[in-house]
UniProtKB/TrEMBL annotation, chain A:
Main location: membrane
ABC transmembrane type-1 domain span: 100-291
PANTHER family: D,D-DIPEPTIDE TRANSPORT SYSTEM PERMEASE PROTEIN DDPC-RELATED (PTHR43386:SF1), OLIGOPEPTIDE TRANSPORT SYSTEM PERMEASE PROTEIN APPC (PTHR43386)
GO annotation (BP), single: transmembrane transport
Topology within the bilayer: Multi-pass membrane protein
Keywords linked to the UniProt accession: Cell membrane, Membrane, Transmembrane, Transmembrane helix, Transport
Protein name: Peptide ABC transporter permease
Taxonomic lineage from the root: Bacteria, Bacillati, Bacillota, Bacilli, Bacillales
Automatic annotation (TrEMBL), chain B:
Species the sequence originates in: Cytobacillus solani
Family matches, as SUPFAM superfamilies: P-loop containing nucleoside triphosphate hydrolases (SSF52540)
Highest rank taxon of the organism: Bacteria
Name recorded for this polypeptide: Dipeptide/oligopeptide/nickel ABC transporter ATP-binding protein
Keyword match ATP-binding: yes
Amino acid sequence: MSQSNVEISQEELQLNPHLKEKPDTLTRIFFRKFFKNKLAVIGSILLFIIIMAAVFAPLIAPYSYEQQNLIDKLKPPSSEYWLGTDRYGRDIFTRLLYGGRVSLLVGFGAVLGALIIGVSFGALAGYYGGIIDAILMRVVDIVISIPSFFLLITIVTIFKPSVGNLILIFALTSWTSTARLVRGEFLTLRSREFVLASKTIGTKSYKIIFSHILPNAMGPIIVSATLLIGGVILAEAALSYFGLGISPPTPTWGNMLQDAQNYTVMLTAPWYPFFPGLLILLTVLSFNFIGDGLRDALDPKSLD
Amino acid sequence: MNGTTSELLKHSKKNNDSEYILEVKDLKKYFPIKAGFLQRTVGSIKAVDGLTFKVKKGETIGLVGESGCGKSTAGRTLIRLYEPTSGDIIFKGKNISKMNDGELRRTVRKDIQMVFQDPYASLNPRKTLKSILSEPMITHNLYSHKERKEKIQDLLDKVGFNPLFINRYPHEFSGGQRQRIGIARALALNPDMIIADEPVSALDVSIQAQIINLMEDLQDELDLTYVFISHDLSVVRHISDRVGVMYLGKIMEFAGKKDLYEEPLHPYTQALMSAVPVPKKKGVQVRERIILKGDLPSPANPPQGCVFHTRCPVATQMCSEQVPDFKEIRKEHFVACHLY
């Protein structure tokens, strides 16, 4: 054990050349651990490609997503239509690119909203405990006990389903798990000695919450967020599949699947349902792989 | 160890300077036991049940006792991490026992600091050494940016740390090093008093000595007052001026170190002292080991009368009926026992 309490001498430097090196920051350790997980890296690459494709859809897409060529309907993949065409002769590749925009936007937007609500609820409940905790957690229990999919269907049928509405609805129904998770983290962290030390220093509560406890609870929060995004994308696809999501002609992966759920279409043009389905699968899988990778990389207990 | 003369000097200085920096009067801390669907309070854990003692400026008070006797709770209540159930804590003439967070921050937070037991848990793993040490100064708006930097260097210097480590994270340090960071953080606000809650019990014996010596040096240099909480009788003997022996939330005996270790009056203290190994010397009588029977009773349901009577070798009928007063038997020697 080196209990060095003097300036580093030249001798020491020669003995141990690492002394002068920049210390390992937590970020660097995080990246090293993350890149060791092959699946997580593959997931990140895939997701990066999907996100980029969606963002730059207008530049990549060979056609307009509304452009119908009724002569070319249900064409198999070819050099003209890379992934074939749908019932109205629209290019599936183009529609997938644009559909990704809606799906990913709803996914990220809803999870961001859910995180804001969930983290606030969980942090307040966990940090203050007592009566505040009891009240906030009963609210969570009530929200959880509402069958969310039926609530979704009801709300969507009342309000016109738009991207903004979908984000709001998904955020309002999916924040509860985050709230519980954050509350648990705060409950354990608030009695840790470094938090007590900050209290004896006189640090204000909001600063303890934001600069001491929250960063230490970030690992589980990020992991659950990535998993939640996958869930929201699936839920959006499911809603669209029931014809309750974003209405055509705006494409989403879900309503493309719904459009293809025709027996004849399935038999005569199997590529039509295949590609949106594949993309949903790949995106959700990527998010789950990344979530797994993040959990391991952010856990200080698993060393390298 | 100091030489005899310097020890005498130290002692006389303390006697002249009889100003009390901290007075604790009948301090109690009960934790409610909640049960049932409505979380009603069905009882309470009497973790600290009536502490009374005074601390002089510049001295070290040791608090010893077995695990679960409430010494850590006492420390945390003194620094107001816990709300006292009743009693008064008078620090530098101000009663801090009923202050709210804001008042505490404005008045005494700066002057009392704490060193914690577990050096692995007491430092935020996501903060660099620099931000750990600057947090107290930023919280209290002390110093300019440049002065803070100098102050940090100065603190690191005081606890014998290489200033090159300033941008490193706690996980890169050993237990002893971390405990020194903890001490540096406690010193950042130039406190008058430090409550040290088992600061060395998580460390190797060789490192323990290092930390204890550091604490003693700092006390001389900065005129600090310590409340030193530990279960280690020899460590407490080494560092303390006066020692309080706790049992089940109460102080059984409180006296100067010499009196307490050489002439313990309370049967519990006698039992504790007999457990300390002594090197055999010619002409010194080997003490008889007093072995206490039974376990520490539950603080949720402490015994009637004297809390120690269930395990006391010399208990009488009276002990199970009446709570003994905490009285001054000799000068500066307080005992709570019916024998005296």
